[in-house]
Design goal:
By secondary structure, the chain is mostly beta strands. The chain has a domain at 1-61. It has 1 helix and 6 strands.
Length: 102
């Protein structure tokens, strides 16, 4: 677990993933990645999302969520879905802070 943009999360493919909102920065759009394989590795979905984030000019994915879904007819046709919002986030350390009040 790492801490960036005021949130705890992970990094994959140069993109920061967090399950909550990132304050500040620019929202670039809602994203989704899917796999119809039952034994999909979460890294496969993160790779898809990281590529999408970078294509939009972002560096983070907020509200990251993933779920495994089965069908009514067969649990062997399970699929994975991951979603989130692409963000061009500004690191707290690099943002300009106002001078302190004296």
């Amino acid at each position: 677990m790492i801490h960036r943009f005021g949130r705890k999360g992970t990094e994959f493919g140069g993109v920061f993933f967090t399950e909550g909102p990132i304050v500040g920065g620019t929202k670039l759009g809602e994203l989704m990645a899917e796999s119809r394989k039952q034994n999909t590795n979460l890294d496969e979905l993160k790779q898809q999302l990281a590529s999408q984030v970078k294509n939009l000019g972002g560096n983070a994915l907020e509200n990251f969520n993933y779920v495994q879904q089965g069908t009514v007819f067969s649990f062997s046709s399970t699929r994975w879905r991951a979603t989130g919002t692409a963000v061009r986030a500004i690191d707290d350390a690099t943002s300009q802070m106002p001078p302190p009040s004296i």
